[in-house]
Write a structure and sequence with these properties.
Number of strands: 12
Shape: globular
CATH topology: TIM Barrel
Structural class: alpha/beta
Strand content: 15-25%
CATH architecture: Alpha-Beta Barrel
Distance between the termini: 31 Å
Number of domains: 1
Largest sheet: 8 strands, parallel, barrel
Number of helices: 11
Length: about 290
């Protein structure tokens, strides 16, 4: 997803915040047993300046897995070699639906070359009627779901898994139907998975635990970010552990989880220092 689109979603995140995620404490809590992953959108401003150096810094900060958000004009061989030298594994990547519809073969070949497990659609943004502009309505989301099923079948045939990453707009409603619920209902569980961005689920007025508990196998991937609510009602992304989102019940409910990726979209201080703090927080998170 491009930067301008991401920024528009940040501005749109002034939706009513869901009730704080809470859950009963387990008697025998243990540290989270997953590799620490990072969405590379977090370092979108650093990678163009020093691609290999930034990857090495991420590894030194405690990350072992990453998810791509663009390839920064690198060939698949160069991208893969840089990751290997840094000791990082690229598990997943983000592409918009329009890219997947027009550049599918190239994106699949690139993904296979760097060993991806998942191809994630980062944003739908496609209307059933291409002449219509504006926000997607329920009919558009149903059309998107059908597109996901078709793409998911082709991605599966290529040896990878297809999924969709939410923001907040998917939690809009029409005639009492939540768009995100319609996506879950209309997509084939064998072809389409979901990467839950927990921060934006909360920003959309919902509790991640409810979805994870009801559809655990639909969510093999998570984006984790922490948020604070500003006086004007908008949400701001902060270092993990410094916001209001409780990730213990979220990870307990995520019984189908395979990988998670920290995504910090904005920083108050040095990005690499804050990303190191994020990684350390997740390593110590007892669930």
């Amino acid at each position: 997803m491009n930067i301008s689109s991401r920024r528009s979603f940040l501005k749109a995140s002034s939706a009513v915040v869901a009730a704080a995620c809470v859950g009963g404490e387990r008697l025998s809590a243990a540290p989270l047993r997953f590799p620490v992953g990072l969405q590379l959108y977090s370092v979108r401003n650093l990678l163009p300046k020093d691609f290999e150096g930034t990857l090495h810094q991420l590894a030194a900060a405690g990350y072992t897995e990453v998810e791509a958000a663009g390839y920064f004009d690198k060939t698949a061989a160069d991208f893969g070699n840089a990751l290997q030298k840094a000791g990082l594994k690229c598990v997943s990547t983000h592409h918009q639906l329009t890219q997947l519809k027009t550049q599918f073969d190239q994106l699949i070949q690139y993904g296979q070359a760097i060993g991806l497990e998942y191809i994630i659609c980062s944003w739908a943004g496609v209307h059933r009627d291409p002449t219509r502009k504006g926000e997607l309505n329920l009919d558009d989301w149903r059309y998107v779901a059908d597109q996901f099923n078709a793409i998911g079948a082709k991605v599966k045939a290529a040896g990878m898994t297809f999924g969709y990453h939410n923001h907040t707009v998917e939690f809009g409603t029409e005639n009492g139907v939540v768009f995100f619920d319609e996506l879950l209902k209309r997509t084939d569980p064998n072809l389409v998975k979901f990467e839950m961005d927990c921060g934006w689920v909360v920003g959309g007025g919902h509790n991640p635990v409810e979805y994870l508990s009801k559809f655990p196998e639909r969510f093999p991937l998570l984006h984790v970010k922490d948020m604070v609510k500003e006086p004007d009602g908008k949400l701001r992304n902060v270092v993990m552990g410094k916001g209001f989102i409780d990730y213990k019940p979220i990870f307990r409910a995520a019984t189908g989880l395979k990988h998670y990726f920290i995504e910090q979209e904005e920083f108050e201080g040095d990005p690499m220092t804050e990303l190191r703090e994020d990684a350390e927080f997740m390593k110590k998170l007892d669930v």
